UniProtKB/TrEMBL annotation:
All copies of domain Major facilitator superfamily (MFS) profile, residue ranges: 11-399
TM stretches of this protein: 45-69, 89-120, 164-188, 225-246, 258-276, 283-304, 310-331, 352-370, 376-396
Pfam families (alphabetical): MFS_3
Record protein name field: MFS transporter
Subcellular location: Cell membrane
Primary localization class, coarse: membrane
Keywords annotated in UniProt: Cell membrane, Membrane, Transmembrane, Transmembrane helix, Transport
Membrane topology: Multi-pass membrane protein
């Protein structure tokens, strides 16, 4: 483990700055894209198509994207992808300036930006453990800072900035996002190079992708880490689908009040990301993950029973804190225990499972609200989260976590196997 005097390397500061700038651009687009689409059409299906296009790449190419990242230089993948996304946004900027923007073009751009995000995020996830020498404590600190910056930029600063820029003209939020990608690319280009993993025996891309996915499903700890966000997305999307209606009909909030509820959740997320490392040190990573998942479930049940907006805001803040801590601890542990040459595939498989689960949650929430009551999806989501916590508690226990960290630790030089050397695709140890 890292000594208290150890610091994050200088290169991490540039990576943090790059992702902070990029998150601000993402927040700008998150706030402006729905409003921008609304200036072009009032068709709900067309508006939904633009939103869905951004997530479609994860469903279609998630595992294949991870396999490609494991073949390519991670740093180069990041800066080239950001440069390509900046260049791509020049098309809708020009179209907006010429008053030729269309829903079809917006959907296509959203899809390609989502594809770029898949490659960048997966490469960044795989690059970070190499930069930080796979040190679990450093990874938790780094992911806490990255997660905090992402929440602040995409959750607080970005959306209102995007709305304000849209008031100046359709091209302005698109141009701002392009500039953020360009700045990120320039910063990532200056990051220190890390050794590339030893390539595996020549296999087809599909076979390597399937091997990476099976690695997750054969390892109980990794499977538990993947199930948490997947099941969590079912629950959270069920809540998100009816939250505005619940806030309006049951809590009596208007548009401003609903925005404050979302702000409370984001503020809780910042707090959770900040205390994640402390929880890990005090409770152990496995127990901390179980506790944060239980907190999320109980907070959603509290939201369902909330008698007024103040209680609902508190419940959302507590839920956000649990989510923020979970999203630091889970990825940090995965980065510390997964072999370098598998990191891209393991990360993309986990992310794809979570993305595939989201539509199911939205359908579940809408169906329960229609057939029963607007509170029913919230109660169902809370109970689902608590059931998931009970099922995965033994899969991500402190004992399994500690065994996995010992197995992933670099071998002693006397063993004859130099640290960092990788061979053929390993079979995960029974944990």
């Amino acid at each position: 483990m890292t000594r208290a005097t150890d610091k994050l390397p200088t290169g991490f500061g540039r990576l943090w700055t790059a992702q902070t700038v990029s998150s601000l651009g993402d927040g700008v687009m998150h706030g402006a894209l729905p409003l921008l689409a609304l200036t072009l059409t009032r068709d709900p299906m067309a508006l939904a198509a633009v939103t869905a296009a951004a997530t479609l790449p994860w469903l279609l190419f998630g595992i294949l994207g991870g396999a490609l990242v494991d073949r390519w230089d991670r740093r180069r993948t990041m800066w080239v992808t950001d440069l390509a996304r900046a260049a791509l946004l020049a098309i809708p900027v020009a179209a907006a300036a010429l008053d030729a923007l269309s829903i079809t073009l917006l959907a296509a751009v959203a899809f390609l930006l989502g594809l770029g995000g898949l490659l960048f995020d997966t490469a960044a996830t795989a690059y970070l453990p190499d930069l930080l020498r796979r040190d679990p404590a450093l990874l938790e600190r780094a992911n806490s800072r990255l997660r905090g910056a992402q929440t602040a930029m995409s959750g607080f600063a970005g959306p209102p900035t995007g709305s304000a820029l849209l008031a100046l003209g359709r091209a302005f939020p698109l141009l701002a996002d392009a500039v953020s990608f360009l700045l990120s690319a320039l910063l990532v280009r200056t990051l220190p190079a890390v050794p590339r993993p030893v390539p595996e025996a020549r296999e087809s891309l599909l076979r390597q992708a399937r091997a990476g996915a099976s690695y997750v499903f054969r390892d109980r700890l990794l499977l538990g880490l993947a199930l948490r966000p997947a099941v969590g997305n079912v629950a959270f999307l069920a809540v998100e689908t009816v939250l505005a209606l619940f806030a309006h009909d049951r809590l009596g909030t208007g548009t401003h009040g609903f925005g404050l509820l979302l702000t409370a959740e984001a503020a809780g997320g910042l707090l959770g990301a900040g205390i994640a490392s402390h929880l890990s040190r005090k409770l152990g990573t496995g127990t901390a993950l179980t506790c944060t998942a239980a907190v999320e479930g109980l907070a959603i049940l509290g939201l369902a029973a909330a008698p007024n907006p103040y209680a609902a805001g508190l419940a959302l803040a507590v839920c956000g804190a649990g989510m923020g801590a979970t999203m630091v601890l889970g990825p940090s542990l995965r980065q510390a225990i997964v072999p370098a040459h598998l990191m891209g595939r393991v990360a993309s498989t986990s992310r794809m499972l979570a993305m595939c689960a989201a539509p199911l949650g939205a359908v579940l929430g809408g169906w329960l609200a229609t057939t029963h009551d607007v509170r029913t999806p919230l109660y169902a989501a809370g109970l689902l989260l608590l059931a998931m916590t009970a099922i995965t508690a033994s899969m991500t226990s402190n004992r399994r976590v500690e065994a996995a960290l010992r197995a992933a630790a670099p071998p002693h030089p006397a063993s004859g196997n130099p640290a960092g050397e990788t061979g053929p695709l390993p079979t995960p140890p029974a944990r």
